[in-house]
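Data availability (excerpt). The following record was deposited with the supplementary files.
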Amino acid sequence: MAFTLVVAPSAAAEPDTMAGPLTATPPKEYREYKLGIDRAIDYDNYGARIRAVERSGAVTTNGPLGVALSGQHSGRPLCHTTGINGTFLYNGFCWDKGDDTSDGGWTPQGLTASHDADPGGTYSGHHLYVASWHYDANKFARISIVNSTGTQWTYGHVLLVEPTGDEKHPNFQPVKGTHADGAVWYGNKLFIANGNQLQVYDFQHIWKMQQISERVGIENGVSSAKYHQWALPMVGEYHIGDRAAAPGYCPAPHETGRACLSSLSLDRSGGVAHLVSGEYYSHGRAPDAHLARWPLNPATDLPKTDNGDTVGTTTADGGFRAPVRQLQGVATDGTRRREVVVRQRRQDAAERLLGQVPRPRRHRDEGHPADPVQVQRQAGRELGADSPLR
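Predicted structure:
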């Protein structure tokens, strides 16, 4: 399972092969895209529970650098073929042998890094990377925080959890139904895209466990997180529609104009940073994929609210429609020149191109070569009339 990072643009890129161009979403439509949140239930309650857990003494708080430098795991130089066209300049690493070959049910999904978290590109002078994973049938989700020197890699795994209980009896449990499709690190916050949810975590509240065991939560004052040394509690949860819907559920596009949250990236171009989301649908479910831009508030590291409050509903301020099914990623080069959309025909090839973490080799059909990755560049277009790329 190789981690491959594209570090330079392609001078001789693959030809455009997608059927048709991106089309700008009309403002009337993208202004219906909402990230809704019940502040009392989905933010304030989480905060009170987190503070209660930390006061209980069952956990100690750590930062992302402490996890990355813990020496829990060590990466290796690239150990599999990448499938990347030789005109790309890339670097990367493999997970340790246990994570690379394990049949334990963990599959990596999204990728973000300190260059998203801070425009300077580093965290306390270190290049850190964060990969999200889901476990068999979305029973658990986790992240890995990696420190890279370019030749050496160390990392630790952190279980994603939901704070529960009350201030007198605080506890936590695994996040439910989380595929951890996409990830963006912005300021202190980590955003995880999960279909109909945008989950928010705060790197100021990484918890070190007192016991390494199978159970998840606090029992007799002792914390544990399914064999993970650390856990990260959710601090907020946004929904694209009905908050009572099953986690990860995405309504079919013909039923609703909502933009589902699958892939996730960060765009710092222009005066306001944005999350850029893309949606994944299987063949036959959608004629195109919705891409949406969500403005961020640098004062809170959260989505920028419509009413100026610190926490509240956020409306998309731009979008595209891409003639793509099974879309795996969207990103901007930070200028007005183009958006890049990647569609997978085969999982490994598409993820390697955009620098996401490929699935373990056991998921590949080694008997057939990967189909070509389809890449589209959209020149001179904007993500919605209200939010030009700069």
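Summary of structural features: Residues 2-18, 345-390 have pLDDT under 50 and may be disordered.
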